[in-house]
Amino acid sequence: MSRVVAAKDASALPRRNFLGWVSASLPITLAACNDEPIVFVADDRPPGSIDYGELVLQYFGEAGRGDAEAIGNYYAQFSKLSSSEAFEATAETRAFIDANADIPEALAALDELVREDFLELRLTDVGGWTLSSAEVDLCVLAWLA
Amino acid sequence: MLLDANDLPTGETLTADVCIAGAGAAGITLALALRDAGFEVILLESGDFEDDVNTQALYQGSMSGIDTWQLDDHRWRLFGGSTSRWAGWCRPMHPFDFERRPYIEKSGWPITYAELEPYYELAQARVELADFIYDLDTIQAASGRPVIESPSGRLRTEIYQYSPPTRFGEKYRADLEAAENVRVYLHANVRNIDLTSSHDQVKRFECVTLEGVRFNVEARAFVLALGGIENARLLLASNSQVPAGVANSSDCVGRYFMEHPHYLGVCIWVLSRPTDTSFYEFHDIDLPHGRVRVRAMLALAPDVLESEGLVDFSASIAETAVAPGDTGPIDAEQVRSLIRDREEERVYLLNVRAEQRPFRDSRITLRSDVDSLGMPRVDLKWQLHPEDNRSMRRAMELVGAELSAAGLGRMWTSTKKDELSWVTNPGGHHMGTVRMSEDPKEGAVDEHCRCHDVENLYIAGSAVFTTGGAPNPTLTVVALAERLAQHLKEQIG
Prior knowledge:
The complex is a heterodimer of chains A (145) and B (493).
Chain A: E1 3-6, H1 15-21, E2 39-42, H2 52-78, H3 83-89, H4 91-98, H5 103-120, E3 123-126, E4 129-132, H6 133-144
Antiparallel strand pairs in A: 1-2, 3-4
Chain B: E1 2-4, E2 12-21, H1 25-36, E3 41-44, H2 53-56, E4 62-63, E5 89-90, H3 95-98, H4 113-126, H5 136-143, E6 155-162, H6 168-171, H7 173-178, E7 182-186, E8 189-195, E9 202-208, E10 214-224, H8 230-237, E11 262-271, E12 283-287, E13 290-300, H9 302-308, E14 313-320, H10 332-336, E15 346-354, E16 363-370, E17 376-381, H11 386-405, E18 410-413, E19 415-416, E20 419-420, E21 457-459, H12 474-492
Parallel strand pairs in B: 1-7, 2-3, 2-10, 3-7, 4-17, 10-21
Antiparallel strand pairs in B: 5-6, 6-13, 8-9, 9-10, 11-15, 11-18, 12-13, 14-15, 16-17, 19-20
Helix pairs in contact in B: 1-12, 4-12
């Protein structure tokens, strides 16, 4: 389980610069949008757990990462979720990812999960697009990473 | 024989076995079927063989509901009626269209699909189509083109056949001209339905021409085949003996007006892998008795409609291009990035033609002003049931999910916040205003299209539709007219 901790004193830092600095946290820091304070996400997972940032990069590819970030950002803003709330909302998908041994295994499992989402109608509307709930979670993680 | 009502002496009374008002698809079909049975038939038509501005102006009125067309620009008052303009789209309604659907209030016809099917086969010939085959497997085998995948079976592919289209006025003019037992009177408008003193029989149609000739028609049976708006208008306006209008003890005449809301370009499908979609384009195929133009449409399986409580629809697809902003805040290119292993870069529009729920407040009423014949003009307050928009939004979501599950991309549906931002266009299909019901309190005509209140008065055309279904109505209108002809043969033969 991850813990989200606000870090008001770091709120002035640009989000991307902050990523490498917080080595003890998940490769995700939250906020720096909508005047929210930056928050640390303490990583309680076992060592060697899948790096979400790397995973979403490989999932969407370098060319697609920016689009995924934009979709994740839009979704969070439209849904009026703070970054920490948006992060919490991805819990199921993160748990699904964490159940895999490594990134290649997780990618294959996610492909199937997205397909199952559509079959089982686990859907999320983002600006009129009918998307799989898991792929929207991945977009949120891409935005936060 | 073809005659001009202006040549009649004022005050003349004509007699026949059956008098039909309106020479459109329903009226002409009925007249031809009764001709073959040897009945004396009078067919009254307001117009001529060509458009006439003054005749067409008799249709003018107002729209106080969904206001996307004018009452005089979606129907045509001439010999042949609106078949002079129709596009020829044909398919029968489905068996489930006739059934009571608990999630659609006022659904359930008093007849079944099976009862109408033999008449659909006759109708198929009337609109110059050879084989009454709408079965997907047969058409697909003849076409040789693939159906779009549906991994869960939620999608349904629907077949339409295309009539040439048959212009009833041109196609059947010579037949009616040669028929000695059918008198077609042009320029003849029914101005009033005169009932017997007990109000349960029509005594005569009181008619008038734009030139002022007045005459009457007496018959054993009378049929109104004036169209979904004019049938109700004449019944409501014939209120000198019964203030609510003829055949209106249920207060249903003019109510439950239904269209097929057309939502054009409201859905965008970003296809992500090479897929043959040509089955969904117009193409010609060979069936056992001739060549026919067909096209497939997307819809949802009946069990999905039922479990989700949705009205029916069919969606055609058309390849298009999208620009940034066309899909709101998230561009198609951005969504394309979500799709792994994408190969194709094609985009389609989905054009949706939907059923609407019968809605009591969607209605025709008489206005206080009159046309040049002295008939009250009408106001049409076309409305959708509040559930209809939700229903269509959900339907499109399900279509999008299924295409996505098949690995065929993603779909966008136009929204504005949580509401649909769809412009509702009409199909020119006017249905439900003299609806068919088993219970006289729930409608105006019975299963034989006979008015519950008036024994010898029948209604032909889409006005009697209990529910509208999604298919274009002409084939069903013609099938019902063939069935009504059979009934009249049995009743007065």
